[in-house]
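ok so for the tutorial part 2 we go from a plain amino acid sequence to predicted structure tokens. step 1 is just haveing the sequence, like this:
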Amino acid sequence: VALGTLHANTNTVTSTFIGDFGVSFANSTSAATFTGAGTSAQTVTGTGLGDTFNIGSTTAITHAIAGGAGEDTINLTHAADTSADFGDISAIQTFNIDIANAADVTVDGAQEFHADVDDITVTGGSATSTFNAATLAGTVETFNASAFKGNVIVDVADDLLEIGRASCRER
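step 2 — the prediction. this is what the tokens look like for a chain of 171 residues:
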């Protein structure tokens, strides 16, 4: 389903459609909220304001989310053991990822977080879960995995992160 560019007064879309879904809020005069099923590709363009994108249970699917000029947030649920493709999610400053119980998620290569991301929060998982991000951009200001129950592996440039969790260790 491709809705195209919506009217300026439209600022909320919720889709439970299980196939590919696309919508643009580019004309909206207020911040937009999009909620999508996540079971197939979601292609969404936000506004120039502080938008929120909620992507439901997803796996190795490439979502194309363009936040716009405002301070935007994405809340994404990652459902299974797989690689994660975040390379086409841009102009998002706050990236919240909830990992399913016992899932291992690997973000690497061209699939990395876009350079626009300032803050990353990883939650969920279990003692057998692993979140692995090959390289965090130098623009990341905070990486918070304090509510993630599994293991975290991230590669960062020297002096980029301050380690604040007792179970973390630098390699």
